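ESCALATION

Customer reports they have been waiting on this structure for their group meeting. Please prioritize. Original submission:
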Amino acid sequence: MKAVIMAGGQGSRLRPLTENVPKPMARLCGRPVVEYILELLAENGIFESVLTLQYLPERLTGHFEGAEFAGVKLSFCEEEAPLGTAGSVKNALGAPDGPALVISGDALCDFPLRQAVEAHRESGAAVTIVTAKVDDPREYGLVVADETDRITGFVEKPSYAQATSELANTGIYILSPEAVNMIPEGRKFDFASDLFPAMLERGMLLKNCTLSGYWCDIGDLGAYRRAQADLLAGRVRCRLRGERDAAGNYFAGRRPAGRYELTPPVWVGEGVRIGGNAQVGEGSVLDDGCTVGAGAQVRGSVLLPRSVLGEHAAAEGAVLCPGAAVKSRARLGEGAAVGEGAAVGAGAEVRAGIRVAGGVKVPDGAAVSDHLSAKGGAACAFDDEGMCGEVGVELTPELAVRIGCAVGTLAKGRPVGVATGDARCAKVLGAALIAGVRSTGAPVLDFGSVFEALFGFAMGYNALTLGVYLCAGEQNAIKVLCEAGLPATRRVEREIELALSRGEFARAGADGFGDCVDMSGIGVMYLTELLRQAPDGLDGMRARVACGNAAAGRLLSDVLTKLGCEIAEEAALQLTLSEDGRRLELSEGETKLGCHRAVAAWCLAQFEQQEDVAVENDFPRALDTLAGERGRRVYRYLLCPADGSDAQGRKLAARQQCARDGLMLAVQLLALMKRGGLSLRELDRQLPPFAEAERMVPIRTPPARALGQFAGERAGEGVVVRGDRGVVLLRPRKNGGAIRVFAEAASWEIAEELCADFTRRLEGLLDKEGEIG
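Update from on-call: job pushed to the front of the queue and completed.
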């Protein structure tokens, strides 16, 4: 069998390490990662391999001048233009006459690949995908398979909320000739997004093969350091260069002279010099020709060839690229990286997560708290409510500027909508974010201080595809939104997170900054739209309005008054708006419609008019029954889709602002009650009985593993469990730290019991796993 090693990637998340070498040439304990891969192939009986090249191809061809390594015969196939993962393999294989194994050139593993090859031959599959179970699914493409290991779907780098599988696609595939022949020649084509979905549509057999052993996708500097620590700790079954001493340290050459302290395991290359009283901690790598000065401290760091750590300097979980110099008493924080040939001045500090690009000179005594030469920076991540934190601590104007730069880069010149809440700090953060967006050349539509529902209308009214809302108060968050104010997709969030982590933003010239258009008059258009929701007016109706947001409450009262509805404190019907204006509750006497029942009443009216509806994925499943009885359909959109599975739901939801706008909903429901001469109790009786309860359960285990204990149907995000008493949705939070339990039943008491029951079951599973661990 022939192997294809995909070795053409640029490795942008590994910068500055990969500024001058391709990812497969990144050194692990003194030799390139691709050598470990070739030895693994030879061990599993594969002795012919072709390497696909694109980025810095000469570094690979020059390293293997003899076109052979570890008994594996090598050939090289260079791409003139990017062909994608599948396209590059097709380019390398042509028309194969037998199965071929594909493996990534930047992963370290010791899998028994023979098992996968045998399983492929026995099953007769068109493709066999090797998977590994992972705790954190957010950086991986996930494989969804049934109990027979037949693959049924894929989820690409989801948030925890959509990660209902813990099987990571390792990028190791065994392809039949028929699979290779489906790949078009000469154009970009990927396995995950193009080939595999097409094969599933045709009903072709794709099999999962989960192998035990070690696997690490070396996608970022953290994984790069961890892989070497794992090599030293003996977690990887492979050959390490050098000899191991009695203490557990490895030496590729003679042990350096001098009195210093090594805390095993440490890997020390040839020609290394270590000064007196220096301390080198476990998991550290001192590559060939590097120098550690007297009194210096190295903890869990990688010093690549010819790098220098000066006297009394310190490196804590850092990476020094070849030829980098850190002068005396300077300090590198956790996750810091110094590029090839760069120099950090005496007494300077490069703080945690900061990357200094190759060739950069950091002045003596400087404190580097941001990336230099746009090469790096600490990442920010999204949770269910957006990017959250304490104002002045996590949410700062500096961060807001960077988020603005990331959003503007993603916008690629398209206009970006921005709005804030009323708090002064939100306005300041908004101004900083606007500056960041404009610095990329993207124009901004500034809607000023408005409540969130109004901003959603503003985005739809102006056909914006990207917007940011900043709120502060009980909840502090920077929210990124898409069409008509819908939550951003995972692709959008991920691109923003990656831009922040890399510090790679679009930069406009002096004459290219984006315009900022004052859109604070949007309230007039919104008022007009609200009046249109009741074309026949609301004469004869009486109501009172309650809202914690004075502006939203006042606007709704004004609209109802203009439509002829009497607003009176003694009115029996009360309309209660949430502060963001997105949710509405109605009450009259003993009758109360919660926010979901209020939307369900509106949906019922749509069904009667032969219209389908779109609601968020968490909406009670009772609505589906209501729709089915009338021959209509409920579409659901996800909180953070990693694919296009909810595309129809999002398209419809963008046209149905009413379902997530409490003010529009209030006007439409009052109009509905007036037309039908209905009281709130009579309106409520038209709906099926359902009540809801919700809990948040903190977890310490991968969400997919916890959800796998429940027999239920996949719901895009989470798992739906149906039973005689009701329906329960279990959905992980985006950050993976908790599972939200949504229970619905015919009564509130039963919903509460269901919610408590599933909470106990989750907590019991987690306690049991903790005992096992």
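Sent to customer with the following note: The longest helix spans residues 748-772.
Escalation resolved.
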